[in-house]
Design a protein that fits this description.
globular; single chain
């Protein structure tokens, strides 16, 4: 049970919220909520860019692929009671 799997499980098991930026990316149709869920199951946590404190939460950067096999990056803020998908980026 490796750190990557622990972090992804923690992010999946909390109430999930989308920022306005993330909603805009999803509206652009190159990424959807199914892609986000898939990356939260099979993605790779970039620990070098993660665990940055943001307010009362910590930033986690998770990379993976969307349904078109493009590399994408999710930026999430992990709070004690919820997760905020801050942004989605194409690599």
């Amino acid at each position: 049970y490796f750190p990557n799997a622990r972090v992804l499980k923690d992010l999946r098991n909390k109430p999930f919220h989308y920022s306005d930026d993330a909603k805009q990316r999803i509206a652009q149709k190159w990424c959807d909520t199914a892609d986000v869920r898939k990356i939260l199951t099979n993605g790779d946590v970039d620990f070098d860019k993660s665990k940055v404190k943001i307010g009362s939460g910590k930033l986690y950067v998770v990379t993976g692929k969307n349904s078109q096999n493009q590399d994408i990056t999710l930026e999430m803020v992990n709070y004690s009671d919820r997760v905020l998908l801050k942004d989605i980026k194409k690599d």
